[in-house]
Input
Amino acid sequence: MQGTVLLTGAAGGIGRATAHFLAQRGHAVVIADLDVAACRSVASEIRAAGGQSIAVGLDVSDPASVDAAVATAQDLGELKGLVNSAGIVHLGGIRDVSRTDWDRVIGVNLTGTYNLCKAVEPVFTQHGGSIVNVASTAGRTASTFSSPAYVASKAGVIGLTMSLAHQLAPQGVRVNAVAPGIIDTPMIQGYGPERHEKLLAGIPLGRMGSAEEVAHTIGFLISDESSYVTGQTIAINGGTFIS
Ligand SMILES: NC(=O)c1ccc[n+]([C@@H]2O[C@H](COP(=O)([O-])OP(=O)(O)OC[C@H]3O[C@@H](n4cnc5c(N)ncnc54)[C@H](O)[C@@H]3O)[C@@H](O)[C@H]2O)c1
Output
């Protein structure tokens, strides 16, 4: 599958690396994020390198914004791929999770992923497609630092991935997820040196992952190279959690 891929969170660390990797592999890429200025700059970098790309502002938690982005994405050619990388992190224990925090984290990470999957479903079931959701190791094993809201949101993404994969397979739509561990992006820069040290000590490969290492797995799952893979969550975590 070449075709057009809609990528959310495309201005972030993993999103930006994925955008460039998908473009290098011949996909037209729709760069979607809350940060419109950053989206424009990623899209113009891709065009300058000879790829096809447009930028679109998007709030994944707002269904109207999502529907508008999916409509715009179809201007760039046959929409055949969706990568849900938009997300927000939340750290702490249950006492740190206010009802407002809970709604915000679930609203972006889980409901946002649902909103995008729901919006592309009528398009993808017409001609096939591939969806890759960005979950987290935190959705498979409760980590020390992630809050219950973040863990629940990412466990929900894994459940949503399995359910959609099962339901949409007969229409030629594959749905998979990646579960990154500690990846060196702006998201984890606020963790502070003490947390970084503890996290590094728990990684058997002895280092953080790079955004490019996540992008390579997403590129595989989006493409026909993984044509018999659906409903799976692939861990990219340096051996932190082995199941
Ligand atoms: N970095 C890690 O260690 C790590 C580990 C596991 C999972 N993840 C997941 O990977 C994904 C990408 O994270 P990252 O490390 O690139 O983080 P990042 O903070 O660099 O990027 C996240 C992007 O999402 C965008 N975003 C946030 N809320 C949005 C909304 N409502 N609508 C549209 N865009 C929105 C942000 O503007 C940002 O560009 C996230 O889902 C995150 O939970 C990251």
